Amino acid sequence: MGSQKQPILKKITKGLTVSSVITGSTFLHGPPVLALGLTKLFKQSKKVDETNIQITNSWLSVNNWLIDHVLPSLKWDITVEADLDLNLQGRYLMTCNHQSWVDTTVTQYFGLTRMPLTRFFTKWELIFIPFVGQAFKILGFPMMKRHTKEQIAQNPELKSRDMEEARKSCEQLLSQPFTLLNYLEGTRFTEEKHAKQNSPYQNLLKPKAGGLALALNILEDEIDALVDMTIVYPDGAPDYGEFWLGEVSRIAVNLRRIEIPEWVRGGNYEDDAEYRARFQKWVDDLWTEKDQLITEIKQKYAIKSAD
User: Fold this and answer.
1) Where does this protein have coiled-coil stretches (predicted)?
2) pLDDT over threshold 80, residue 169
3) What does DSSP say about strands 250-258 and 225-232: parallel, antiparallel, or unpaired?
4) How far apart are CA 162 and CA 51, in angstroms?
5) Residue 63 belongs to a domain
6) For residue range 39-60, what is the model confidence (pLDDT) as tens digits?
7) pLDDT for 95-129, tens place per residue?
8) Residue 85 DSSP code
9) Residue 263 domain-assigned?
10) Which domain holds residue 77?
């Protein structure tokens, strides 16, 4: 009986500890970010932006401290390939596979001391979520008003408006170091989605190339590298609660540099069908390499488990 209660008691204690620390840290760091953000309504300030990023990084450092001290049994296997030189003053466009909300925490854990603050495209509608939406806006997350194909068909001008919104959102990042993350699959991987898509990849959903094409078109001359991050959970993708309760024993992360072909420059993905097909083929080939990498990492861990 005692041996059965002890793990449950440990989980409850760990859950209360993690939730209390994260909640307290959020209430400590959140109001200054929002208060400083309000000053930008009257005057744009690089100093305010830098201060808000420092506050946000402080919040992330608390999360990372929890990972190191409350989840000490979690083992990291992080590989940065030799041709990828990362630093906190860089400008990076990053792609990644997507399996769980934990992916964001993994990205933050890795990136805090190696890369600028990671941002990603978000829907404009998130601005109405109290605190979270305003923080995204203040911290420079590109927020886009995306219209449906049906809406664009009824009003073709909306297409160019969406593109202009995306361009402005990306250009706002250029005043500072940044990491702009794009989950090419567009949604989290599940076996059901994989089967429904009839995906040609063993470990991935089909990539959507449009967002990457747009970001490269806008930012390519300004970025230091196109980075591909691969996250593997050898024991299966966890949910957020499982991660913070210490039920994840190992996570593998691989980062590699992707060379951008010269022909990519200046292309029109939206209106040039030939360019669009060539770009999609390039992304498909990158995804095939990524799929093989995931398989190799899983096989390595399967061998370790067998030993």
Assistant:
1) none
2) no
3) antiparallel
4) 30
5) yes
6) 877 777 888 889 999 999 999 9
7) 999 999 999 999 999 999 999 999 987 777 777 77
8) -
9) yes
10) 73-116+177-306
